Structure formats: C-alpha cells, structure tokens
Amino acid sequence: MIGVDRGRLAPVAEVSVGGWIADRLGTFGGSVGSVAPRGFEAYARVLHPVSDGDRSNVRWAEVCASTGRRPHALMQWHAIAGVVETRTETRTGTRTTRTMLWPGDAPWVGNLDGDTLVPLCQVLAQHARQDEECFFALWEGYGWVHGSPAIAVLGSTDLIPPAFPPEVIDGPRLQHPGRDYILFSGPLMAALEMGDRTVDWFSPQSPNLFWPASRAWCVVTEIDFDSTIVAGSSELIAAVLAEPALEAWPVEQDDSLAHDGDTLNT
C-alpha cells in the first residue's frame, strides 16, 4: 500500500481541482503542450536516466558520445541508442529483429526514478509556498493499482490485493484526453510516496502529474514518454536546467517529443 496509509497522500474526491489542466492541453499527441498545460512562461524536459553495461546510471549525453549521435533538447532514445529493426518474411509471417548500438538499458517510460525525482522536488520546493498543498495524479491503468488478476508475480499463486480501498478504486477520475487519473493531495515530498509496496521487485511509481495549489508549476510524466516535462516560471525552469543532478533541456510547448521528433539523429 502506498503513502495514503501513512497519512501522507490523501485521496481527493473533488477532482475538479485539476480541471484547469485539461483546459490548457493541446491536441492529444506527442508535443510538449499535449501533455503539459500551455501558457506557462517556460518549460524543461528532464531526461530519465539509463543504465550502462555495469548497471550504473548514465546520461543521454554519454550515450550520444558512445554511439556517435548528437545530444539536443528533442533527441529520441531510439535515435541516439542506434536502434535498428529488421523485418524478415518467413513461412509463418513477419519476424522482427531489434538491435541497438548502446550496450546498456533503455530509460524508464512513464516513471521518474527516485534519484532524479528527489533533486527535482528540492528545486520545486524553492518555488512553492512553505507547506503548500500539492496534488498528485496517478494513471488508473497500472496493474498494481487494481491487483489480481491485473498483476501477478511470476512463480507465485498468491493474490495481490488492490493498492487502494474500494472507494478510491471506484471513485471519481480526473479526465484528460486519452488518460484518466486517480487524484491525491499532500505535501510536495509526498511525490516520493507514490507506487506499489506490495511487490518487493517493483520500483515505486512517480506521479504522472503533480502541481501546487497555487498552480505555479506543473510536472508531467506522461505514461508513454521517457522524459518528464516541467512547466513553470522562467526562474523555476532556469533552476531546473542548472541543477547538476538533472539532465534537463529547455523546450517549447509546441516542440515534438514524438517518435519522429528527433530530426538531427535520423
């Protein structure tokens, strides 16, 4: 069970408190402004770290140095890692073989690891009122949210219970184009409390969206993106870009983070 049991995160029934975001989203798709609310002064893209062959976290810029690609704000993982898909026709159908120049792992998609989320929250704390209430949106589609049979542990027949009580599982949803979320509230650092604690091997899930009551900024980890968008004041975004623990790039609300958005590493 997540931090809601420890009094950190509290379910929010009045999901209308997050209605302002959908009103400021562009057409559902791969642009910055399709997942992060438009109208902020500035935006930053925080890249999710990757692991090398020794299981140590490295930056995308290091991957580029290894594969001969060019690092830039809109780089796409498949392009800098040198992912190549080869399709071969066989008697039983089409066989797809996938190779990659980069010898390590790919970044997490839809989840910001704790080593990155902590320094990000520390920067955000400098741009929010002390003890200001924050709101955290969790995509409803994760299997661990609903328990068995939506999720299972390999080799075990034990049933996994839902992560939340029935009134939360069956409660109202914050609705965005193509995405529905369960909404919680709590202090800023409760962002670290989100995630499944019932399965030892499961890494905690970061909020998919969170923002303070003042709406001074908004952080979005779209479930299909391998980077997180921070929207806020120019001062905040400058601080995010300057934080040495983050690999971040400035972006604009109309920039494309779609699969074909990297036009420099094609």
Task: Give an overview in words.
This protein has 266 residues and is an alpha+beta fold. The chain has 2 domains: 3-49 and 107-251, no CATH class; 54-106, no CATH class. The protein is built from 8 helices and 13 strands. It has helices at residues 19-22, 32-35, 60-67, 77-80, 114-125, 143-146, 166-169, 234-242; strands at residues 10-11, 42-47, 50-51, 57-58, 84-90, 93-99, 134-139, 174-176, 179-186, 209-212, 218-220, 227-232, 248-251. The strands form 3 sheets. Strands 1, 2, 7, 8, 9, 10, 11, 12 and 13 form a 9-stranded antiparallel beta sheet that branches. The chain has a two-stranded antiparallel sheet with strand order 3-4. A two-stranded antiparallel sheet has the order 5-6. The longest helix is centred in the middle third of the chain and has 12 residues, at 114-125. The protein is globular. The N and C termini lie far apart (43 Å). The relative contact order is 0.26. Mean pLDDT is 88; it is low at 1-7.
Report the biggest beta sheet as strand number plus sense, adding barrel if it closes. 9 strands, antiparallel
Low-confidence stretches: 1-7
- Beta content: 15-25%
Overall form: globular
The total count of strands amounts to 13
When the domains are counted, the total is 2
Q: Which percent range fits the helix content?
A: 10-25%
| Structural class based on helices, strands and sheet pairing | alpha+beta
The number of helices is 8
User: Could you tell me the radius of gyration in angstroms?
Assistant: 19 Å
SSE topology string: EHHEEEHHEEHEHHEEEEEHE
Mean pLDDT: 88
N-C termini distance? 43 Å
